[in-house]
Write a sequence for this structure.
């Protein structure tokens, strides 16, 4: 089969990204424009600002991705764009731009699910590293700022189908990292800074219990099993638990002090944040991360046993977490289960994953028509 070069475009949240991927197996270029600086002072993504930044960045980001790949608008074979899930205004920028470009170039356009993209970030890199044979069934944990989902992934003809076997009932895991970092005045986004600080604290200092949320799926539309055990997540409680701990341990003054110290610098480094943290704060951060990691690992492996899977994939922004990676690797090894992650660069939002996931759909002829639109609540099936 001849090489197929797909230009991927991603704008579902706060990263404007474009990439060129060859035949779903080689990243030829990968450009990510992050809006962190825009949202930093708010401690979270502001949707209106995100859409405005996407509008500003999308044309230069796409041009750079083509340039880096030594491709042109004419030489690429197809375009792929994230149509959902995500922020409606942000998605609209990518979808409208990709539709206009595909129409003008008379090239096929594939509308993609962002979560499918995260799963294919792992598959793309495994193929790139020469591992083309994953054992099935596959269980994928997609864990990011907006999502915490467990999917069983199966191959069907040339494509893939997905079955949701568990998801968060409230906050996503990355959202908990971001909210706890905001509460403790550690900066934004919370995941990378907590990952760094946790190494300096005692993870056993504070205990955060998690509820086991298991129930039987009795939805008759569920084709997998009428009586299937689901494993769901819940991360809104841990933020409240951290807040209560702060209040009962008189940590407000040290948080205010840190805010004051870090406000002196325009762009404080991680070392600056570390220097502004006292031992009780570092212990709290390390314990929070340990609790999150234990919950994600134990529930994912419990679902892996329930569904008798042969391979586990862990992907999305939180998959960049170093403790999560180590914990997954050792717990899965004990069960003889291979576990794969994307590189850190492809863990967080990017467009290479969108272009890679689009390849089997392109081969299967799943081309979008003029009705393609953004769908903020798009489900993966
Ligand atoms: O996949 P992503 O870029 O965007 C979404 O689809 O949501 O994920 C961003 C999320 C943020 O919540 C961020 O705090 C978290 O991923 N994150 C991490 C780490 N790096 C990013 N969480 C924990 N540890 C990290 N090293
Ligand atoms: Zn994402």
């Amino acid at each position: 089969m001849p090489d197929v070069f797909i230009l991927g475009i991603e704008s579902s949240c706060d990263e404007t990204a474009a990439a060129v991927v060859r035949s779903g197996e080689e990243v030829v270029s990968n450009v990510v424009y992050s809006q962190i600086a825009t949202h930093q002072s708010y401690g979270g993504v502001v949707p209106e600002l995100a859409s405005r930044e996407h509008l500003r960045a999308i044309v230069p980001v796409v041009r750079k991705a083509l340039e880096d790949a030594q491709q042109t608008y004419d030489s690429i074979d197809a375009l792929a764009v994230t149509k959902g899930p995500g922020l409606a205004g942000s998605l609209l920028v990518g979808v409208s731009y990709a539709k206009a470009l595909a129409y003008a170039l008379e090239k096929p356009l594939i509308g993609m699910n962002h979560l499918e993209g995260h799963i294919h970030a792992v598959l793309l890199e495994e193929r790139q590293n020469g591992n083309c044979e994953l054992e099935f069934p596959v269980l994928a944990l997609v864990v990011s700022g907006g999502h915490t989902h467990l999917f069983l992934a199966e191959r069907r003809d040339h494509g893939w189908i997905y079955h949701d076997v568990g998801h968060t009932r409230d906050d996503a895991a990355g959202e908990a990292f971001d909210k706890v970092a905001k509460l403790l005045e550690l900066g934004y986004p919370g995941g990378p800074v907590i990952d760094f600080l946790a190494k300096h604290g005692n993870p056993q200092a504070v205990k955060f219990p998690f509820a086991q949320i298991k129930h039987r799926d009795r939805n008759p539309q569920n084709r997998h099993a009428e009586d299937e055990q689901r494993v769901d997540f819940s991360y809104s409680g841990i933020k409240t638990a951290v807040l209560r701990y702060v209040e009962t341990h008189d940590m407000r003054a040290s948080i205010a002090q840190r805010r004051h110290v870090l406000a002196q610098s325009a762009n404080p480094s991680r070392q600056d944040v570390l220097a502004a943290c006292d031992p009780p704060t570092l212990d709290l951060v390390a314990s929070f991360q340990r609790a999150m990691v234990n919950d994600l690992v134990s529930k994912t492996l419990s679902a892996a046993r329930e569904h008798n899977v042969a391979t586990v994939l862990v992907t999305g922004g939180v998959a960049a977490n170093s403790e999560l990676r180590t914990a997954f690797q050792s717990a899965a090894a004990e069960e003889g289960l291979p576990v794969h992650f994307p590189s850190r660069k492809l863990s967080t939002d990017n467009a290479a994953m969108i272009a890679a996931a689009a390849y089997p759909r392109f081969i299967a002829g799943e081309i979008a028509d003029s009705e393609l639109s953004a769908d903020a609540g798009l489900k993966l099936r």
Remarks:
- The chain has two domains: 5-125+347-363, 136-337.
